[in-house]
Fold this sequence. Notes:
This protein is about 35% helix and about 20% strand. The chain is built from twelve helices and 14 strands. The chain is α/β, with parallel strands linked by helices. Helix 7 (about 140-150) links the parallel strand 6 and strand 7 (about 155-160). The mean pLDDT is about 95. The strands form four sheets. It has an eight-stranded parallel β-barrel with strand order 3-4-5-6-7-8-9-10, surrounded by six helices. Strands 1-2 form a two-stranded antiparallel sheet. Strands 11-12 form a two-stranded antiparallel ribbon. The longest helix is centred in the C-terminal third of the chain and has 18 residues, at about 260-275. The radius of gyration is 30 Å and the shape is elongated.
Amino acid sequence: MLAEDLELIPGRWIGSKHPCFVIAEIGQNHQGNIYTAKQLIETAKKCGADCVKFQKAYNGEKFNKAALARPYLSKHSWGRTYGEHKKYLEFSDEDFRELRNYAEKVIKIPFTASAMDSKSVSFLESMKVPFIKIGSGDVKNIPLIRQAAATNIPLVISTGMSDMEGVQEIYATVKQLHKKFILLHCVSAYPPPPREINLRVISEFQDRFPDVHIGYSGHECGIGVCLAAVTKGARVIERHITLDKNLKGNDHHCSLEPKEFKQMVEEIRTIEAALGQRQKRIQDSELPCIAKLGKTIVAATNLSKGTVLTPECVKIKVAEPKGLDPKEYEGRRLNRDVAEDESITTQCVQTL
């Protein structure tokens, strides 16, 4: 059973006859600054993204005390411990509502987020987001996936840090509740080496899970892999967006700056147009070239009326006016004299 079209956000469908859905993953590239977050929302809209996505977490729900107390001495740290670092970057519920209002009412772009813990699922459900993202960190968190699926809100699920058996368990879990979900092929490295990206997994997902749509979430440098994913049939593309790759933070260096993100969206749209249909025919755009350069048959020498055309009688050239195609002279007889190098047209011949 092939996947039915899925309305991921109101009025925006996912399916073979619809444009690829592009998610601008803002994540925590906002640096904990709501003004920067709003800049990224506006930038994503200008770049052609279909929606913006943040990450929602309650640190006490996502991490235990020991994890939050862990020293965090990275150059990307916003605090002495991991808890201080995460606290600096997390937006409050009120911030999220303000950002959603800014995105949807001011900038006119859909807003959603990843749910990083059970409380976050409930919060996003209360916000009535168009879809909930389940990140790769929760591929084994079947209770969270089941809770998210039970909301009956569409889900977009990344599959990094999982093998095929794990993906099959995710698929079976959600299918028990509904079929409004999308699986994203993903490799959770920042960035992954190209040899480990394995875009052919998209085809494998399509074969194993034909009744759901498949997409790709990328963390590689550049846009080429995402474009290739579209040619493999990815219906959703998710990429991190940043204002500057050199900013402090783990994700910036493998995110796309505005110029890159805009180019990616534009080239995705070009690829979609170029993929077209599985039908080989002469295109309208080819007609001028056919008229200018298409080969035709001409008389190899002066030919008399009544001559039966043979390979020795003709040559194949670009000629004016256009005559018979090279494959069409056999079984024909001239009904008038034709001079050497003159085009042999349909008016010059009759069928034997």
